[in-house]
Amino acid sequence: MRIGFTLPQFGELAHHPQHAARFAREAEALGADSLWVGDRLLAPVDPKVGYAGTDVIPPEFRSALDPFALLATAAAATRRVQLGTNVINAPWYAPALLARSFTSIDLLSEGRLLVGLGTGWSPEEYETTGIPMAERGNRLDECLDVLTAWWTRNPVEYRGAHWTVPASHIDLKPAARPHPPLYLGAFAPAALARVARRADGWLPIAPVGRKYAGTDPVAALAQGLAGLRETVEREGRDPARFDAILRVNPDADASVGDIAATIVRAEREAGVGHCFVELSYLAKDVDQALDLARRVLHRAHDR
């Protein structure tokens, strides 16, 4: 199992950006295989939609560093780990700007970027970015079209319902060929169908902690991944080449043992070979985050 961790981006960790490079460098030295960012813009006072099926927004989302700045920092500070996004909310951005940022980070890291995209869930964030939330699925499809063209063609031209790229010379291409691996986060049926049609892999989530007692996220993961690979095959694609990277999402009550057990079960029971652990709810500073990473790696690899 390849195991990664989130970069210090949210909550208390976001208030110490001067330590982000040190975290990336030391996490790599500990044996981490990947480092990850997400994409939160704000935490509404009275949210119309809460987080993860609740009616509230975690206080950690009140502080958020820019994902692209963190990835660039980690790219400069490391040599081996992969650098991933889980997820960038693609409809918020003009696809050409996303393509330029992703290409730059992939080149800075010499081909270590994993691109994970999604659509988000917060109406207030869509309101703030000026993008109609009802258009998010269509805009994600167009974004995938533009990214593919930007990375694999020259000149590049695209004309869609929402975005346009006039015929242009784009000489700078990613180091990863034909382009960085592209993953999608999805749970709704239409979104999962898009994953099967268009993505190199899926980004599922396994919650861990006391409030999830009585549920079995690993069993649900195994069932969901098996069904998704069947859909991939029906789309005429090779399910053996379809990947999944699991986000292990522990709450503040989760222990290192709980996290390690979830990682091990995901590999043994669902066949997942790569996961990463969200540290925002467990660590208040970079030293604590690094200690958690060290203990998770030790426990998971010892099982």
UniProtKB/TrEMBL annotation:
GO terms for molecular function: alkanesulfonate monooxygenase activity. One of its GO terms (biological process) is alkanesulfonate catabolic process. SUPFAM superfamilies: Bacterial luciferase-like. Its EC number is 1.-.-.-. The keyword Nucleotidyltransferase does not apply. Keywords: Flavoprotein, FMN, Monooxygenase, Oxidoreductase. The keyword Zinc does not apply. Pfam families: Bac_luciferase. It comes from the Bacteria. Residues 15-249 form the Luciferase-like domain. NCBIfam families: F420_Rv2161c. This is TIGR03619 family F420-dependent LLM class oxidoreductase. It comes from Streptomyces botrytidirepellens.
